[in-house]
Each structure stands twice: as C-alpha cells, then as structure tokens.
Write a structure and sequence with these properties.
16 helices; disordered N terminus; Glycosyl hydrolase-like 10 domain-containing protein; signal; TAT_signal
Length: 430
C-alpha cells in the first residue's frame, strides 16, 4: 500500500528507502467516522480485539498497483477485452489462494480508472493520459470482485500528480495545468501542495466521486503524503505556510496538521457519501524511532513518518480516525535496523484498546529477488511472519505487495503462506 512502502509504490523508491534503513496530527473536535468507528459511535459495539474475534475473520489482501503498469494492466494500450481478461485473472488467482480482498490502485497520479468529471483517464490504460479506454475498469473491478466473494478496496494516492516534472506532458485539461499555483515540483516529480485548503478540498471531491459511483468496500491510502525527503532538496511550500501556518510553531507542525485534516475530512466525506464504507491507510512501517521519541519503536530507520512524511500515523490509530491500518513491514525477521518482529509487536501495542483494525503489509516482492539478503531467498520467510504475528491478538490479517508476485510466485513463498496458513477460506474482518 501500491503499500508498499505502499504503499504505490515504485520499486525504485522502495530500494532507495531500504538502503537508508527505511522501506519502500491537531484539528479540534472529532469528525464523523466511516465504517467500524461510525457504528461504534452510534452505540453498536465494535468487535473486541483478541483471538475469539480473529478466528472467523481475517484480512487476506493483495495490492494491485497500476502506476507505471506495475501489476496491471501488463502494458498500456491493450484492448479493453485484454485488460478485462488480465484483471479477472488477478481476481481468480486471489480466490485460488484463498485471499478475500483486492486493493486496486484507481488514482495513481491525479488521474482516474473510472469516468471522472474531475480528472483525466489514467495513461496506464491507453498510454495516453485522458484517452477513454472504452470501458469502466473500476466499475468492472467492483462487480467482478463481488461476484467472486472478494472485497474491492479503492486505492487512491492523494497528492502525487506525475512521476516527471514537466507540466506540459499532462493533458491540456488537467487540473494541475489549470491551477499551476497548486503544484510543487520536487525530486523530479510533480506534487499537489497539501498546505493549500483548495487543494485538499479538490482531491477529496475527486476521490469521493468514485465512492459515490461505486459500492467499494473501502477507501485506501498508501504511504505518500508529503513526499519522501531527498537530501539537498526543499519542498517549496513557503508561500502556503506564510498564508496558512500562522497558528503553528513550526512548518513541520503545520504540515502534520494539513495531513491530519485530509484524513479526518476524508473519513467524514466517506461516511457522508456512502455510509458504512471503511477507510484504511497503509503507512511506511516506522512511525518514529525510540531514539527520537520514547513512544517509538526500537528501530534505526532512515525514514520516520511523523518527521519526514508529516503523517502522525500513531495518532490516527490511537484516536480511531481510520477503520484500519496496514503498516508496511517490508523487512525480514532479525533485520538490525527495522526488525519485523519488533515492529509487529510495536504496532500491536499501538492498536491495543482501539477500534482500528491492524493488518500487516508484507513484502512478497522481495521473496527471491536477487538484490535481497539471504533471508528473502528462503521461501519460508513470509510464512514465518504470519506465524509470529499470530502471537499478537491485535493483528487481524495481512496484505501482500503485490499482484504481480502473487501471480508469478517465483520461489513459492506465497504458496507456502497458503499451505501453512490459508487452508480454509476466511471472511475479511468488519
């Protein structure tokens, strides 16, 4: 969570973050919540954390990334029939592996995999941004997933505009070209400025259009809020800070508040547009290192979401702002800088006593990859993750990155997970 350090998650970004020890908020009164939290607020009890609630229900998910045609479609420009065929093949493979949820990336770069009145058709479909593919991928995905007993979670990236820095390459009608003041170039990419209230309102309208049109089971964000930091570069939001940051003691605090507002307003919008639809986020796996904050994990990660992405993921869980969280724990058991075992325990403790469901993001893409250490050459590594996580009652399941690896399973790591842990089908938690 696409998750990841999701999140998408491009493999190049994941590799850079891994090399640095990484992996791939204060708004006043509580906003209305979607899904589980809304039901609890209405006086209906949320399921208690613990083995009794885990037994009949377990998240078994897969991310299906569309950015750069990572997982689907296999390449741009396929016929509508070929794209449908590839999509249903992914859904069928999920059913065969006794998974129960597909998290489909439907807004990878400020574009759309449905006929949006706000943003252009995604170039991953036809190779040309704005070109109608001749069918409705998101509508079809929801219908075909539900026909197979799968949940379909719509995965959106809120602020990424493009994986390049040239606005003229965007289709002429793109909102970023109509509002160049909304755009911040950074790290060779284009980003919407999270510090502008008009940007935050716009991206919510664009995303909620899909929720209004289709009975998606959940809305899903990945790990990209403010962009991952790049040495020697500055994300230029000084003008927005001068206009809107006066109430904050630092730009970092203001930025965290901007992301907090996005999360809370989106939760309220989902509940307003389609009540009962859940809202989940898949952050980078380290909130803060304990050396930075005693509440943090015993890790030495090069990226900390609170400080670097300005995403206070711990608070979102502790204060029940979201229905589920899927931290991207894309490291092996025993990894010195970010041990999977340490982080699984830290997130379990963070979720303890909350209504936020905890699922763990799993780096299936690393299994058998030549550049990965020996732990990832063992097809049993991921199965060990699930065995270890079962000792924490707060862990209600796992999501695998990503669809291409579920389909190919080069060293049999997914097959081992299925054989060891997914002998019978399971419904996703509600």
């Amino acid at each position: 969570m696409a998750r990841m350090s999701r999140r998408v998650f491009t493999l190049s970004a994941l590799s850079v973050l891994a090399a640095t020890g990484g992996g791939a908020a204060a708004c006043g009164a509580a906003a209305p919540r979607s899904g589980t939290a809304a039901r609890a607020a209405a006086g209906r009890p949320a399921p208690e954390a613990g083995r009794a609630s885990r037994a009949p229900a377990e998240m078994r998910g897969v991310w299906l990334a569309t950015v750069t045609n990572r997982d689907w479609p296999s390449r741009p420009g396929l016929t509508a029939a070929a794209q449908r065929g590839e999509l249903t093949a992914h859904l069928d493979k999920a059913v065969r592996d006794r998974l129960n949820t597909v998290i489909l990336q439907v807004r990878p770069t400020a574009d759309a995999l449905w006929p949006s009145p706000y943003e252009p058709w995604s170039e991953c479909l036809t190779g040309r941004q704005g070109r109608n593919p001749g069918w409705d991928p998101l509508g079809t995905a929801v219908r075909e997933a539900h026909a197979r007993g799968l949940e379909l979670h719509a995965w959106f990236n809120p602020y990424r505009i493009a994986l390049h820095a040239d606005p003229t390459r965007l289709t002429a009608s793109h909102p970023a070209r109509r509002h160049p003041d909304w755009v911040v170039p950074y790290d060779g990419r284009l980003h919407y400025n999270p510090g502008l209230p008009e940007v935050r309102a716009f991206v919510q309208r664009a995303m909620l259009d899909a929720v209004a049109r289709y009975p998606v089971d959940a809305v899903h964000f990945d790990d990209y809020f403010y962009p991952y930091p790049v040495a020697g570069q500055t994300f230029d939001d000084a003008d927005a800070y001068d206009r809107h940051g006066g109430a904050f003691g630092s730009r970092a605090a203001w930025r965290r508040d901007n992301i907090d507002r996005l999360v809370r307003e989106m939760a309220a919008g989902i509940e307003r547009v389609r009540p009962g639809t859940r809202f989940g986020i898949s952050p980078f796996g380290v909130w803060r290192n304990a050396a930075t904050d005693p509440r943090g994990s015993d890790t030495q990660a090069g990226v900390q979401t609170y400080d670097d992405l300005h995403a206070d993921t711990r608070k979102w869980v502790r204060e029940n702002w979201i229905d589920y969280v899927v931290p991207q724990l894309y490291w092996h058991i025993g990894y010195a800088d970010a041990d999977y075992a340490e982080l699984a325990a830290w997130w379990a403790e963070t979720a303890r006593g909350t209504r936020t469901h905890l699922y763990l993001g799993e780096a299936l893409y690393k299994a058998g990859a030549a550049e990965e250490p020996s732990a990832w050459q063992d097809p049993v590594e991921l199965s060990r993750h699930l065995t270890l996580a079962a000792a924490h009652p707060q862990v209600r399941g796992h999501v695998f990155f990503a669809g291409k690896e579920v389909a190919a399973d080069p060293i049999g790591a997914m097959a081992r997970v299925v054989a060891d842990h997914y002998e019978r089908s399971a419904k996703p938690p509600r």
